[in-house]
Automatic annotation (TrEMBL):
<feature type="binding site">
    <location>
        <position position="239"/>
    </location>
    <ligand>
        <name>glyoxylate</name>
    </ligand>
</feature>
<feature type="binding site">
    <location>
        <position position="242"/>
    </location>
    <ligand>
        <name>glyoxylate</name>
    </ligand>
</feature>
<dbReference type="Pfam" id="PF01070">
    <property type="entry name" value="FMN_dh"/>
</dbReference>
<feature type="binding site">
    <location>
        <position position="130"/>
    </location>
    <ligand>
        <name>FMN</name>
    </ligand>
</feature>
<feature type="active site" description="Proton acceptor">
    <location>
        <position position="239"/>
    </location>
</feature>
<dbReference type="InterPro" id="IPR000262">
    <property type="entry name" value="FMN-dep_DH"/>
</dbReference>
<protein>
    <submittedName>
        <fullName>Alpha-hydroxy-acid oxidizing protein</fullName>
    </submittedName>
</protein>
<keyword id="KW-0560">Oxidoreductase</keyword>
<dbReference type="GO" id="GO:0016491">
    <property type="term" value="F:oxidoreductase activity"/>
</dbReference>
<dbReference type="GO" id="GO:0005737">
    <property type="term" value="C:cytoplasm"/>
</dbReference>
<feature type="domain" description="FMN hydroxy acid dehydrogenase">
    <location>
        <begin position="1"/>
        <end position="341"/>
    </location>
</feature>
<keyword id="KW-0285">Flavoprotein</keyword>
<comment type="similarity">
    <text>Belongs to the FMN-dependent alpha-hydroxy acid dehydrogenase family.</text>
</comment>
<keyword id="KW-0288">FMN</keyword>
<dbReference type="GO" id="GO:0010181">
    <property type="term" value="F:FMN binding"/>
</dbReference>
<dbReference type="InterPro" id="IPR013785">
    <property type="entry name" value="Aldolase_TIM"/>
</dbReference>
<feature type="binding site">
    <location>
        <position position="158"/>
    </location>
    <ligand>
        <name>FMN</name>
    </ligand>
</feature>
Amino acid sequence: RDVSTLLNLFDFEESAGEWMTKMAYEYVASGAADELTLRWNRQALDAIRLNPTVLTDVSQLDTSVSLFGTRLSHPILIAPTAYHRLLHPEGELATVRGAGAASALYVVSSFTTTPLAEIAERVTQPLWFQLYVRDDRAFTKDLIQEAEALGYRALCITVDTPTPGVRNREHRSRFKLPDGVRTPHMGGPLVEKKPLTWKDIEWIQSFARTPVLLKGILNPDDAEKAVESGISGLIVSNHGGRNLDTVPATIDALPRIAERVDQRIPVLLDGGIRRGTDVLKAIALGASAVLVGKPICYGLACGGAEGVAKVLQILQHELELAMTLTGRATLASIDRSVIWQ
Ligand code: FNR
């Protein structure tokens, strides 16, 4: 599919809706229950107004950011999403090429349909690994150590999914993986019996050799506990509105968490980021970087590696425009004063 006519991330979503099978589209697009949180993620970002500064020197824009000693040319990461071969025949191998073309860090999902080793072979950009902790802790430990040995540079433990949420739309479309699409690092769906607790996180930290981030933090008290437990970074996330409906938009949860963490560790955010101004708003309210989920799935479905790259390039370009137009030449200069109070 020709992606050259798609100008923004909403164009990709619309085009994907026409192009993908209904089942795959419903799987990606749907949220939990009444989809209130799914909508709020967008609405809350839209409701924030900007307060530009004029007549500043923005001739040398710098969108780069350092995370755990890795310099990234921009703060837009690929969020972990499952089943890329459901979306495109090349699956995660297309995603990783797209990431490379757009110089974006890619967080590979535990539900990857391509072995971690094959993705790592193709890499020109840093990779992180997203972990779902299984009841079989020996399996989990082996998986972490495999990812580390392959060069995945950080571990994002997803902590907001003790169970999948109420997914009415997904069930209605009778979601089922096509024959031949497998998840080599996940034996089956997430139906764990042992609860994941801080003890398990400590256990993982006891042997992990790369930074450990917690993905799915909304509560400032949890953020505090994480910092005290020596966690390296947090991802403020409501799983794209897919798990617990009626939790707040992530952009609304971010300020309190950023305040509590008080720059002791990096705080990242995902959920509803679709425009360069959204990235700028997240950074202004305390995020070091953002991740995008659904738009990457749509880019992959519409145009494989090229589609993924284009989604990221559009967002990065829009961020540069937003920085220029608000008079902020660096990410460090994007503070709360850019938000209209
Ligand atoms: C996800 N997400 C997710 N998260 C995770 O930790 N492991 C996973 O395997 C998946 N799988 C997944 C599949 C699909 C189709 C979607 C849309 C999302 C959540 C994802 O990492 C991220 O938190 C949200 O997608 C961010 O919100 P946006 O950008 O989709 O609005």
